[in-house]
Design brief:
heterodimer; A: 12 helices; B: mainly alpha; 13 helices
């Protein structure tokens, strides 16, 4: 509509563009530093390129692989249950009476507005072995065992993940609900009905592809959450007991701010960034193309 | 007919059962925050308090008061700056004839999903060189930068769906883009601005990693302060829960009073508008 003359470009776009560019510069800086011998106290002049050494060093550590493995566990046990719980909630709300839906929808969604710090403090208490809500309720119901929800190395991973599922299923629900309710979908269904399509055909050719798109969105976004998850683990267990619940982001933080190994820490950051990019680049590419086609 | 009734009852009961999963944690959090230490020791978590014991909240306000004020200053300033910067950039991307608008949108959207870990360490170094670590300026700068991509995207998507007629009238009247933007476009953009503001405010208020790294001694942020209660008040669940509630109050108030904009922002933020 408007011609992008220099003065307009400066006025409208320069501030945002500079900041966004800086984000990319900082990211490249992280990647760059991961190939150097950078530590706290190392002068810029004695900074040396050491190739992949930081990575090769990391790969020797059991602790790195433990964190990596835990992120994979997150991807399976956080992403899939959150996506499916969201889909079930959206489906049920879609066919529920309108009044009930308007009461329940915010109830499923409010955890999305909470911080991981709050969720972490809340669920740490729920999981407390002695006076946590869960064990107390189980005890009243007649289970005598004291279950160490956050103190058993294996159980702790799944306890934290369950808290995350609780917090994010409303988020995935709202995306599915939008797919089921979208104006385009409703008018496509109407048009198909007019053309005499059977309800099976409508389900197969109109509703399912739409849900498939929403599923792609949900799985991609949750995967990114699962790769960068930090706060919830930090607040609930700090990665313990031992390193049993540690994830890459926690390990990265410990390397940088507790062990002063900055280059090693940027290597872990680069790994988190690279893994997210594997999802993000195709995802953003697809969304932009889709969006510009409609818009 | 009877079968439909059974189905309906089944759907309702499954939904109500599932809703308990979401309702009960909030319920125990609220009632526990209002109990005396003695009532807590009884471990009757599901029963309401005999009498709402508000001194838990006074104690928490005393401990977290500073953090609440600091976080409010940082989140409100970051949100306002983001809105200003992002709305302008969103309009630029939506309404200027750019050869590379697709590429620019790609760059902006990719940045909006960037994991904070990717920039954390250089950002810490940069801020310590500039002597702005642990200052309002340092935190506001970090949050403005991190939230600019989202603050650009949400208005951009909104402007793209806006019919062009109004702006075309302004052109005929001889208005330039700046004038048209301020006089014609901004007044009808309140929904987009509200969505952006709520989302940015919530994400800054709830943010943990940057707050933990760049704040701490002089500037205390709410999310790390809530997390600290776990150690400071170990086993004082009433105090911990009061802190958790106070710490999530502003985002929850927005969620309750302006849920529509919150959801809209979430959906646009994920490119599902």
């Amino acid at each position: 509509m408007w011609k992008p003359q220099l003065k307009y470009t400066l006025f409208f776009f320069f501030p945002a563009f500079t900041l966004i560019l800086l984000l990319y510069v900082l990211t490249i800086w992280t990647v760059f530093m991961s190939f150097t011998n950078w530590k706290f106290g190392v002068r810029a002049t004695s900074l040396k390129f050491i190739g992949l050494e930081n990575y090769l060093e990391l790969f020797k550590y059991q602790r790195f692989w433990e964190s990596f493995k835990n992120n994979i566990i997150w991807l399976v046990f956080f992403v899939i249950p959150t996506a499916f719980l969201g889909l079930i909630l959206a489906y049920l709300l879609d066919i529920a009476p309108v009044k009930l839906e308007s009461i329940l929808r915010p109830l499923f969604l409010y955890p999305t507005a909470l911080s991981f710090a709050v969720t972490g403090v809340l669920w740490s208490w729920i999981y407390d072995p002695w006076d946590g809500v869960l064990n107390v309720v189980l005890f009243r119901l007649g289970f005598e065992a004291i279950i160490p929800w956050l103190d058993d190395p294996t159980l702790a991973k799944f306890s934290i993940i369950s808290a995350a599922v609780w917090q994010y299923s409303g988020f995935s629900m709202i995306i599915f609900l939008a797919a089921l309710r979208g104006g385009l979908l409703k008018s496509a269904i109407e048009a198909a009905k007019v053309d005499g399509a059977s309800s099976a055909q409508i389900l197969l050719h109109i509703i399912l592809p739409n849900i498939r798109n929403a599923m792609l969105v949900v799985i991609s976004l949750l995967t990114i959450f699962g790769l960068k998850i930090f706060d919830l683990v930090w607040v609930m267990t700090r990665g313990g007991p031992g390193y049993s619940t540690e994830v890459l982001a926690v390990y990265m933080y410990v390397l940088a701010f507790h062990q002063d190994l900055l280059a090693a820490s940027t290597a872990v950051a680069t790994i988190i960034f690279a893994l997210s990019s594997l999802i993000l680049i195709p995802y953003v590419h697809y969304s932009i193309k889709r969006w510009f086609k409609h818009g | 007919m009877a079968k439909m009734m059974v189905n309906r009852a089944l759907i309702i009961s499954v939904l109500v059962l599932l809703s308990m999963l979401f309702l009960v944690p909030m319920y125990v959090m609220v009632v526990t925050s209002l109990k005396t230490p003695y009532e807590i020791s009884l471990a009757e978590y599901l029963s309401p308090p005999k009498f709402p014991y508000l001194s838990n909240y006074l104690k928490i306000l005393d401990k977290m008061g500073e953090a609440l004020i600091d976080t409010l200053i940082v989140s409100v300033s970051s949100t306002m700056i983001c809105i200003a910067i992002g709305t302008l950039a969103g309009y630029f991307l939506a309404r200027f004839n750019l050869r590379y608008s697709l590429h620019l949108s790609f760059i902006v959207m990719l940045a909006s999903f960037l994991p904070y870990q990717a920039i954390l360490i250089p950002l810490t170094m940069l801020e310590s060189w500039l002597f702005i670590t642990d200052t309002y300026l340092g935190l506001i700068f970090a949050y403005v930068m991190l939230n600019t991509p989202l603050s650009t995207l949400i208005p951009m998507v909104f402007f793209m769906t806006l019919p062009k007629e109004l702006e075309e009238i302004a052109i005929v009247d001889g208005c330039g883009p700046i004038h048209t933007f301020i006089k014609v476009v901004l007044p009808i953009s309140k929904p987009a601005l509200a969505s952006t503001a709520i989302l940015v405010f919530t994400s800054v208020w709830n943010e943990f990693l940057i707050a933990l790294t760049l704040g701490g001694t002089r500037i205390r942020m709410v999310a790390p302060s809530v997390a600290e209660l776990k150690g400071a008040y170990a086993a004082f669940w009433n105090l911990q829960m009061a802190g958790a509630i106070i710490g999530s109050l502003p985002p929850l108030i927005f969620f309750i009073t302006a849920g529509k904009y919150f959801v809209k922002g979430l959906l646009v933020g994920t490119m599902r508008a």
